[in-house]
Amino acid sequence: MEKLKMAICDREEGFARKMYEYILLTEGETYDVNLFTEEEALKEYLLDNPTNILVLSDEYDRARLNLANVESLVILTGDKGKVKEHEIIYKYRKRDELLREITEAYIGSAKEKRSITCEKGLKVIGVYSPVKRCFQTSFSLTYGQMLSKNHKTLYIGFENFSGFDEMLNRITKLNIIDLLYFLECDENDFSMRIKSVVERIGDLNYIPPARSFLEFKDVDSKNWEKLIKAIDEKTDYEYLILDMSEHVMGLFDILQSCEKVFTITDESRISDAKMAQYLSILKETAYEKVIEKTERLKIPVFYDIPGEYELLPLSQLASFIRKKVMSKEGIYEGT
User: Fold this and answer.
1) Angle at CA 191, nearest 5°, toward 42 and 68?
2) Residue 118 lies inside a defined structural domain of this protein
3) pLDDT recorded at residue 83
4) Can you give the pTM of this predicted structure?
5) Computed from CA positions of residues 8, 12, 15, 18, in that sequence, does the dihedral angle turn out positive or negative?
6) Which of 46, 75, 109 is the last residue of a domain?
7) Of 23, 124, 132, 140, which is least packed with CB atoms within 10 Å of its CB?
8) Does 249 share its domain with 127?
């Protein structure tokens, strides 16, 4: 995968250094970053080095720079009064937010759209159960975080009322509906657009869920198939975990496209009855392949499952997944 060339130039060396180190740590596979604090050093670099994104403090006079080799210029300012969308952005904020703004500015002003493709095969894991309150989402988030220790993993949840923002004490501006819209508008932008939407739980990347399941009413299986294909072809994710719900149109088609499906149940008679009906419907509608790909997991009663999502990999549920899923599949969790 070809990296995007980025240069950061800011006289505030402490700020610039922390931003540089953050990008290297979190997006080193995407960006080849160079750091400057002196204008002369930057001028010399730009003469012979084509640069996709130049992130420049407004303290510098851009007219003194030769920008012929620069695809997109992003100006940083410490003065909120100077902020302009896709032109000048405020720099004193959380580093993940700032990087997202830089990415958006690049998309909005780039002279030539770039597409980052992935030659690795994406492993799509579906998680769905007709049984409710069976730890389906806890399983999905735990498994995803464990995978992400050694494999680049993306989680997408389809729960009716996820409560993600409240649980994680954050406010997300963009979600899965926005990502679908971006994909429809311009597929070539997808590899950059998805970066502006993605949030993190520990090492796990996730797409914020829709605010309401009603937003899915016009989204069909073809839209979901197109999204999965784009993630496969235009990103370097190794695993995609789909935490499914029956309100999603094309549920069975999506599950059938998965490499593996986990169905979480318990030991109750009600669960057995619901599972029997679910399997019967799959057979009646010619989706037997979903059954072939499905592993049914009966999760024991755990009393220590934490309410904080970041702590799930330290729980008894994680030990269960490590033993019953990861060791069986031969997946190395990493450290």
Assistant:
1) 30
2) no
3) 81
4) 0.70
5) positive
6) 109
7) 132
8) yes
